[in-house]
Amino acid sequence: MEKLRIQTGVKTYEIEDENGNVLGTINIYPRDFNIGKRAKEAQKKIEEYINEAEILAVENEEDAIDKITEIDNKIKEQLDYIFNSKVSETVFKGLHCLDVVASTGKYFIESFLDTILPVLSKELDAAVKASEKNIEQYTGQVKKYDRRTAN
Questions:
Q1: In this entry, which stretches build a coiled coil (predicted)?
Q2: Alpha carbon of residue 109 to chain centroid
Q3: How many domains in the chain?
Q4: N or C: the chain end with fewer CB closer than 10 Å?
Q5: What pTM was computed for the model?
Q6: In a domain, 61, yes or no
Q7: Is the pLDDT of residue 151 over 60?
Q8: Which strand (E) or helix (H) includes residue 123?
């Protein structure tokens, strides 16, 4: 059987904890123009889930632990949705995404997003610039052709 290999732009990132221990690798498509749309949608849901978990923690309901575990799973699903890949399994390694990171006081999910989103933003900016350069190259050729045929 013949194989076709296509360039997808996938990048592999090694995920380490604060002690340099490798947790694993994640594959993401940082130049995926839909990632911004998915991130915006997921961010809203994640914020709602966090608020819901905080309310449950204060109310101290009998089944709060089960509900917060359910919320943890929903947040992880949203993270996977953003990246269109199962990154949550590698990033959290069975930990709760609402665990508080001691050094920052932020939730684990927030800490991860604060780390990865600037990387993605840089990649998307580079993709836009490359796209603009390609468009300029092609439109420049059309303009030259128009000038030659106008005479």
A1: 121-148
A2: 11
A3: 1
A4: N
A5: 0.79
A6: yes
A7: no
A8: helix 108-150
Residue 2 lies in a domain: no
CB 98 within 8 A of CB 75: yes
The 3-state DSSP class for residue 26 equals strand
Beta-bridge mates of residue 15: 24
Q: Is 83 exposed, middle or buried (0-12, 13-18, 19+ CB in 10 A)?
A: buried
Residue 18 lies in a domain: yes
Q: What angle do CA 17, 66, 108 make, to 5 degrees?
A: 20
Domain containing 84 equals 11-150
Q: What is the maximum span of the chain, computed from C-alpha positions, in angstroms? A: 83
Copy the structure tokens of residue 135.
Answer: 């468009």
The tokens for 31 are: 């130049």
Determine contact, residues 90/79, Cβ cutoff 8 Å: no
- Residue-level pLDDT at 25: 94
Structural domain contains residue 111? yes
